[in-house]
């Protein structure tokens, strides 16, 4: 009889293959995941580097524009407005703009506006005075009378829609500063007090007429005030409650006050303001109007001879950075004027000048000599 052979089927090998395949898939996914993380980190590092290079390029555009503007001022030339990026070959503010041709680092566009609609000063620190020329014009070379001025302000760096004015002292109360120099003493008030002095740009001829035309007020922050108008022909040193809103005032900053009944303007329309903050470092914005009751239709479209806005775009490869800065274009705003005059128990022979070309000196009326 023939013997029958029996074969036993073994499946252990198949299971090993499946386990190996699954492990290979898992390892592959892990490797792919790490590779993607590494690529993403490399991309983030590259983007960060390009952002920094683009930012530096934009700042180079700002610096170059400032140098051109300063040169124009020193040479008595008119500052050239530039409001388009499409004429770069003839743009006087784009010079040597390619900083690194291999990496594609350059500033591609520089816009300059010497006639902004508002003036911004940031920051002003306690005790630091700032002189501000306010000259309105409907178009370059066409002066426009200023009938009222809106000043808005708040604590430096504080968002305009997130202020806290619940602890501001009642108007007329000026407590001692806190332990940190220049701050309110333990109260919630995200704005400082702002002393305002205003004098017309022309009309007065000596110190007596200057004193008669100059007016001072103190703008103090207060939550939802109902009396935020300063009558600049009223009593000297009046205290005005600035209207402060935690959610924003509708102007540049959270607190605002309106200066109206301004001193009479002379042959040159416009004013000089002197700003002096107390308690807090503040950001300040100034807008001028043709009406004593400011509204959008009466805003003066251009303010001249004070600031120029510079808007610069930097590029690094495929990354763009755009920044904007303001530069003073009037030597009066250079912040090098003292906040006080001389004081003495004896007579002082002096020369006194507030605006260019008008000096009260020895022998002249009001010179004190």
Structural overview:
The protein contains 2 helices and 18 strands. It folds into 2 domains: 128 residues, no CATH class; 188 residues. The termini are far apart. 32% of the residues are buried. It is an alpha+beta fold. The longest helix has 63 residues. Strands 3, 4, 5, 6, 7, 8, 9, 10, 11, 12, 13 and 14 form a 12-stranded mixed beta sheet that branches. A 4-stranded antiparallel beta sheet has the order 1-2-15-16.
- State the major sheet: 12 strands, mixed
Order of helices and strands: HEEEEEEEHEEEEEEEEEEE
Binned strand content: 25-35%
Number of helices: 2
| Model regions low in confidence, pLDDT < 50 over at least 5 residues | none
Q: What is the molecular shape? A: extended
Which properties best describe this structure?
single chain; 369 residues; alpha+beta; 12-stranded mixed β-sheet; 4-stranded antiparallel β-sheet
């Amino acid at each position: 009889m023939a013997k029958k052979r029996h074969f036993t089927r073994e499946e252990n090998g198949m299971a090993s293959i499946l386990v190996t395949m699954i492990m290979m898939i898992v390892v592959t996914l892990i490797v792919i995941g790490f590779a993607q993380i590494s690529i993403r980190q490399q991309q983030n590092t590259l983007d960060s580097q390009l952002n920094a290079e683009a930012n530096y390029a934009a700042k180079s555009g700002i610096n170059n524009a400032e140098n051109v503007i300063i040169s124009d001022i020193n040479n008595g030339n008119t500052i050239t407005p530039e409001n388009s990026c499409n004429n770069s070959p003839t743009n006087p503010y784009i010079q040597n703009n390619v900083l690194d041709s291999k990496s594609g680092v350059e500033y591609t566009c520089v816009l300059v506006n010497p006639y902004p609609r508002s003036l911004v000063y940031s920051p002003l620190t306690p005790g630091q005075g700032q002189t501000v020329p306010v000259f309105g014009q409907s178009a370059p070379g066409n002066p426009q009378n200023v009938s009222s001025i809106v000043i808005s302000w708040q604590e430096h760096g504080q968002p305009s829609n997130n202020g806290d004015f619940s602890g501001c002292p009642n108007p007329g109360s000026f407590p001692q500063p806190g332990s940190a120099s220049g701050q309110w003493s333990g109260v919630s008030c995200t704005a400082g007090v702002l002393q305002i002095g205003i004098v017309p740009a022309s009309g007065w001829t000596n110190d007596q007429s200057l004193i008669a035309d100059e007016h001072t007020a103190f703008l103090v922050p207060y939550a939802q005030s109902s009396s935020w108008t300063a009558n600049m022909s009223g009593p000297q040193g009046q205290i005005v409650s600035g209207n402060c809103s935690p959610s924003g005032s509708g102007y540049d900053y959270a607190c605002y006050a309106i200066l109206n009944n301004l001193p009479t303007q002379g042959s040159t329309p416009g004013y000089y303001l002197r700003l002096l903050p107390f308690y807090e470092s503040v950001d300040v914005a100034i807008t001028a109007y043709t009406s004593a009751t400011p509204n959008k239709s009466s805003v003066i479209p251009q303010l001249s001879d004070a600031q120029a806005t510079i808007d610069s775009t930097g590029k690094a490869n495929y990354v763009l950075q755009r920044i904007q800065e303001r530069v003073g274009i009037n030597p009066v705003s250079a912040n090098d004027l003292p906040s006080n005059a001389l004081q003495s128990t004896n007579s002082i022979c002096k020369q006194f000048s507030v605006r260019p070309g008008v000096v009260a000196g020895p022998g002249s009326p009001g010179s004190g000599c």
